[in-house]
Amino acid sequence: MNVLQINSSIFTDGGQSTRLATDFVERWTQNHPDSQVTVRDFAAEEVPHLSAETFQAFLAKPEERNADQQAAVDYSDRLIAELHAADVVVLGLPMYNFGVPSQLKAYFDHVARAGITFKYTENGPVGLLGKQKVYVLAARGGKYQGTPRDTQTKYVTDFFNFLGITDVEFIYAEGLNMGDTPREQALSDAHKVIDQIAA
Ligand SMILES: Cc1cc2nc3c(=O)[nH]c(=O)nc-3n(C[C@H](O)[C@H](O)[C@H](O)COP(=O)(O)O)c2cc1C
Predict the structure, then answer these.
(1) Which residue, by CA, sits nearest to atom 22 of ligand 1?
(2) Residue to substitute in 17, 93, 96 for testing ligand 1 pocket (most ligand atoms within 8 angstroms of CB)
(3) Whose CA is nearest to atom 2 of ligand 1?
(4) CATH numeric code, 2-197
(5) Distance from the CA of 99 to the center of ligand 1, in angstroms?
(6) Does the CB atom of residue 175 touch ligand 1 within 6 A?
(7) Under the phi-then-psi rule, with left for phi > 0, alpha for psi from -120 to 50, and beta for the rest, what region is 150?
(8) Does ligand 1 come within 6 angstroms of the Cβ of 55?
(9) Contact 78, 38 (CB under 8 A)
(10) Cβ–Cβ < 8 Å for 38, 71
């Protein structure tokens, strides 16, 4: 079983979302010893923002790409191959300024490729991935779950759905900046859920 861990906290291994994702993967691999784990950390390894040049490279015919365009496509292809190969995706998701980290948005921009991860049809776009199960470890300073201000959950779910990945489950650690007791409680609750799910 292939497990892809994606970390997007600016604090890399010190981020709460990264710690929760790492804890999830550790529990998962204890209970699924056949797992092959790949880790991407988009603060440690900077994923470039999508540019017009890169987008043009995605659209260009392979034989017409210049060296820079080929390098941009190669990078995107590698990210897509990892996602394609994954059976389980474990995403560390911090909330920054009411949204996802810009690093994660940049990653999404590199894996949404027409004709490769989705296609347009007469009935609208159709995702071309789908076997993956996504677990999202969502770390937040405040509390938003179940309220209209939680645009993150809908956005991340919609994005994976767009690629055909419909099995997306969130584990929340909220209120992390609301004092020591709420933080400890939230992390403890999240770890209990991880223990249940990753068993
Ligand atoms: C730049 C920045 C912006 C933040 N914006 C929000 C926010 O909009 N809402 C919120 O609830 N918490 C916010 N927080 C708190 C984080 O969600 C919280 O610290 C969480 O642990 C971040 O995940 P991480 O530790 O994995 O990076 C912000 C933190 C930072 C550093």
Answers:
(1) 94
(2) 96
(3) 96
(4) 3.40.50.360
(5) 9
(6) no
(7) beta
(8) no
(9) no
(10) no
**pLDDT tens, N- to C-terminus, the chain (199 residues):** 999 999 999 999 999 999 999 999 999 999 999 999 999 999 999 999 999 999 999 999 999 999 999 999 999 999 999 999 999 999 999 999 999 999 999 999 999 999 999 999 999 999 999 999 999 999 999 999 999 999 999 999 999 999 999 999 999 999 999 999 999 999 999 999 999 999 8
Q: Where are the domains of the chain?
A: 2-197
56: CA distance to ligand 1 center in Å? 34
Task: Judge whether 130 and 45 are in contact, CB under 8 Å.
Answer: no
pTM over 0.85? The answer is yes
175's torsion region: left (phi>0), alpha (psi -120 to 50) or beta?
left
